[in-house]
């Protein structure tokens, strides 16, 4: 692990998953298989690792477990396999967070990269017009925040190493796939060129759009402290991430949002 996430957890590759320290709680990991995500790939018949990624939702220090439940806050961890999906990188399908029964909002997500190279792709809508589209390139220690209601996908930019990340989520998390699946994927497909670098191809099932490639924004208005693990920030001041289960608290930040 290249970045210390602020609690005792170690990703594993064979089998893919996580080892929890003695003071850490967490569930058995769930594996996402290649067959589960084929419909969202530009080449649904491609070759790739059978286990694309392993995910554990609701981890943290045992001392914080009651507080996290009380706050309706959840920390999830994911590790991606090394390799490719045909010409495409290892990635999630692309989805929108459903409207939480707790807040009546689609909720944001606070990503933190632990190892590997990530691209957090996001678009305003999963409709024919995808709105603004961003590809945010992130390295270990970087934080990227996806706002409410946006479609997004997490992409591994380096096929030679696994990607591992953590994220603050609403405890009433759930995913809407309909819009993305109706368009057979996100508005811009990432593919590897002959030099193993990501290039972007427009998905013709969407209206024409522009893709903005960038590094993460300054998220100080959302409580992010540069170089500090987001779990450590929570430990110091648990109220910092109240806006994750209650996004209306930062309504002004989500307007004209720039990731």
From TrEMBL:
The lineage of its organism: Bacteria, Pseudomonadati, Bacteroidota, Bacteroidia, Bacteroidales. It comes from Bacteroides salyersiae. Keywords: Gluconeogenesis, Glycolysis, Isomerase. One of its GO terms (biological process) is gluconeogenesis. Its EC number is 5.3.1.9. The keyword Isomerase applies. GO terms for molecular function: glucose-6-phosphate isomerase activity. It catalyses: alpha-D-glucose 6-phosphate = beta-D-fructose 6-phosphate. GO terms for cellular component: cytoplasm. Transmembrane segments: none annotated. This is glucose-6-phosphate isomerase. Pathway: Carbohydrate degradation; glycolysis; D-glyceraldehyde 3-phosphate and glycerone phosphate from D-glucose: step 2/4. Belongs to the archaeal-type GPI family. It is an enzyme of class 5 (isomerase). Residues 50-199 form the Glucose-6-phosphate isomerase prokaryote domain. The keyword Signal does not apply. CDD domains: cupin_PGI.
